Structure prediction request, 454 residues.
Amino acid sequence: MQQNEDTIVAQATPRGRGGIGVVRVSGSHTTFIAKQILGKVPQPRQAEYLPFLDKNGELLDQGIALFFKAPNSFTGEDILELQGHGGPFIMDCLIEEVVKAGARLAEPGEFSLRAFLNNKIDLTQAEAIVDLINASSKEAAKSALRTLQGIFSKNIEEIQQELIKLRMYVEAAIDFPEEEIDFLSDGIVKGMLQSLIDQVEGVIAKAHQGSLMSDGIKVVIIGRPNAGKSSLLNALTGYEAAIVADIPGTTRDVLREHISLDGLLIQLVDTAGLRIKADLIEQEGIKRALKETTFADHIIIVVDGTTTHETDPKRLFPEWADKIPKETGITVLYNKVDCLNIPPFIEQKENYHVVAISAKTGAGLLEFRKHLKNSVGFSENSEGNFIARRRHLEALAQAKQHLLEGMFQLQHFKAGELLAEELRQAQLSLDQITGKFTSDDLLGKIFSEFCIGK
Ligand SMILES: Nc1nc2c(ncn2[C@@H]2O[C@H](COP(=O)(O)OP(=O)(O)OP(=O)(O)O)[C@@H](O)[C@H]2O)c(=O)[nH]1
Ligand SMILES: [Mg+2]
Prediction:
């Protein structure tokens, strides 16, 4: 375990006034700093009530000091926690003294980065810390905790163990060319490979749920002016987030709201109504609206049922519908059923759904919410899920792709060498998830998302 020469300090509690505020110090100068500020190094893991002193021995504050001796600490280094009174001024003075004693201010996520570099936690666990802190629902918090406990990593490691076994088997076959064909034809390799593919698919399903809770999805609402887009936004958020008026062209800017549907995190985007005749500002709004759709996971096209029976996106928006990426889900929201005297309904079409509701009265809204969850594959049962991110899903998808390619090489060409290479690549992809093999760039990106003091 490496004690970092460079000793870091940061406030671990949020800034502002509170009963207590915690300053955290980590690195090899920690004991020296403890002696400077407390006059002693506290017994490891024993809370001591001590005065906090400045350089001239004057009292700054007094509170609880906790010392964790390396390697038995969060970062794996010596850690000192000073729990003082939580006022911004006192906290700043305390941090200043720690800096004078030889520490420097920590970068965002630096404590967690050190924990990772010292093998205290792996990458999925480091990310789960952020997800737990940011969790906005019970389901998300539970899933983040499962990842933090290492359940996600354990799933990945189990797959890796089997992958290593299979690689050894295949490499052995290559080393004995006269027996290679037998080796590869005896069904064992195929069986092991298939089982690996099934396991990766299983983890992908659970990770997908998890990523819906941490990264969430982006849902963009578009349609003609006055169709009821802003009314829908308000109905889903439950408050008057957007101005609603019967004047076409009311919304000109892009409006964003975050909602959670039973743990599914959604960024909802309301946009300017699409029409040809628009003034300059509205034209800019329309341009922005269309730009939003290119990054959407799901698009809701709101149609005013009192003006048309048309629900086919291609006929509604011939100039634009073709540009929607194929993988983006589309729901046509047939709005204002209250004026049509028909009940709400859901109908599945070839590559989109039609959902009829009234954004004004709320009729059909419950079914629409359910439909939204279903259409992105979100299940309410979060048991066994772990929080995961898009980057994990991408790595898992890559691993699966290599395994499938390996299967192809095996079945069609009995190509042992190519199979071995695909297996090796699959392993590299999985290594990226836990951080065994991760570029510095990626590490920098991951830890910079943390806030200071974590
Ligand atoms: N009867 C009825 N009226 C609705 C419904 N939804 C919206 N409206 C009305 O339709 C008008 C336009 O609603 P908005 O939500 O502002 O429409 P919009 O699509 O955001 O319009 P722009 O921002 O101009 O593009 C308002 O007068 C709403 O009260 C509905 O389900 N039933
Ligand atoms: Mg609007």
